[in-house]
Specification:
Layout (H helix, E strand, L loop, with lengths): L7 H14 L10 E4 L2 E4 L37 H10 L5 H15 E3 L2 H5 L8 H11 L2 E3 L1 H14 L4 E6 L2 E7 L9 E4 L2 E7 L19 E6 L14 E6 L11 H9 L11
Parallel strand pairs: 3-4
Antiparallel strand pairs: 1-2, 5-6, 5-9, 6-8, 7-8, 7-10, 9-10
Helix pairs in contact: 2-5, 2-6, 3-6, 5-6
C-alpha cells in the first residue's frame, strides 16, 4: 500500500471531514493523530492501514484479526451494538431480525471511496462512528470494510454469531444462520455449515447473495467475539469454504494475494451486484 504522504495538512483535512460527516464525537474513538504519515485513533489503531500489528485488520502474510471491530464490543459497546439489539427487538422471527439488520446497513450507507470522503487512499471507520452518523443524519457514507464492520457488530448486539471475511479485493460480513433458506450458496467456517454472506455494498443485494468471484473459493474469515481492544497477536485466520450446495471448494485461497492487493490499494474495492 502506498504510504500516505501527509503531515499537518492531512490532519486538517481529516478533521474537517469528520465534522462534516457528523461523527467527530462518536464513541469510542474521538481523537485522531498523525504519525509517520498514517492516522491513528485514541486506541492506537491505524485507520489508514489494514496491515501490521497496529493496522485496523492486523493483516500479514499469514494472519488476520479485524481489531477495529473490538473498538465497539466488550466493555466498549456503544451505539452500534445497541442499535443491533434495538432492531432485533422489533421482530419475533430470527430470520426476519437478521434481514432487518442487513437492510438497515445496506440502505443507510451510501458507498463512497475513502479518497473521495477523506482524501486518503484508505481510512477505516469503526462501527460506532458510522452508526452515530446514521443516527444523526439518517444516512452514512463508507466503503466495504465500513459496512462489514458495522454489520458484524450490529449482529453481535442482536445476539447472532458474526464474522468478517476477506477475499481478493474485498471484505464482507458473515452471520450464522443455519436455517436460512434464501442464501445463494452454502458456507462453512472451520467445518461448521450455516454461515450466510452479508454483502451490504450493493443497493439491491439480498441477505445471502454472494459475489460470483468468491463462490467455490476458500477465504480468510475471523469470527468476532467481545474481545478486549488491548493489542494481541493476530491469529491464523479461519477458512470460510463456500460451495454451490453440492460440496466444498477445491481451489485454495492465497492469503498472500490479499497482501499484494493491499499494496495497490485495492483490498477494499466495492463489488456491485449484477
Amino acid at each position: 500500500m502506498n504510504r500516505i504522504k501527509v503531515l499537518l495538512s492531512l490532519i486538517l483535512v481529516l478533521a474537517a471531514g469528520l465534522v462534516a460527516t457528523g461523527y467527530a464525537s462518536a464513541t469510542p474513538s474521538a481523537e485522531f493523530y498523525e504519525r509517520n504519515g498514517d492516522v491513528f485513533d485514541d486506541w492506537g489503531i491505524c485507520r489508514t492501514r489494514a496491515f501490521g500489528d497496529d493496522g485496523f485488520y492486523q493483516l500479514s502474510e499469514t494472519t488476520f484479526r479485524p481489531i477495529i471491530a473490538f473498538e465497539s464490543l466488550g466493555k466498549a459497546t456503544a451505539q452500534a451494538y445497541s442499535l443491533g439489539g434495538q432492531i432485533a427487538g422489533k421482530y419475533s422471527d430470527k430470520m426476519q431480525r437478521a434481514e432487518a439488520i442487513f437492510r438497515f446497513v445496506r440502505d443507510r450507507i451510501n458507498y463512497v471511496s475513502d479518497i473521495d470522503q477523506f482524501k486518503c487512499n484508505e481510512f477505516a471507520q469503526n462501527a460506532d462512528e458510522l452508526a452515530t452518523t446514521i443516527s444523526q443524519n439518517r444516512i452514512g457514507y463508507g466503503d466495504c470494510e465500513d459496512s462489514a464492520v458495522l454489520l458484524a457488530v450490529m449482529y453481535k448486539g442482536a445476539g447472532y454469531r458474526s464474522a468478517i471475511v476477506v477475499g481478493s479485493g474485498h471484505t464482507a460480513a458473515l452471520v450464522y444462520l443455519p436455517d436460512y433458506g434464501k442464501a445463494s450458496v452454502v458456507l462453512e467456517l472451520e467445518g461448521e455449515p450455516g454461515w450466510v454472506w452479508a454483502e451490504a455494498t450493493g443497493r439491491n443485494n439480498p441477505l445471502g447473495w454472494m459475489p460470483e468471484g468468491f463462490i467455490n473459493v476458500k477465504l480468510a474469515a475471523y469470527e468476532i467475539s467481545e474481545e478486549e481492544i488491548a493489542p494481541a497477536e493476530p491469529t491464523t485466520p479461519a477458512v470460510a469454504v463456500t460451495g454451490t450446495g453440492g460440496g466444498a471448494s477445491s481451489r485454495p485461497f492465497s492469503f498472500i494475494s490479499v497482501i499484494g492487493l493491499l499494496w495497490v490499494l485495492s483490498l477494499f474495492r466495492r463489488r456491485r451486484a449484477h
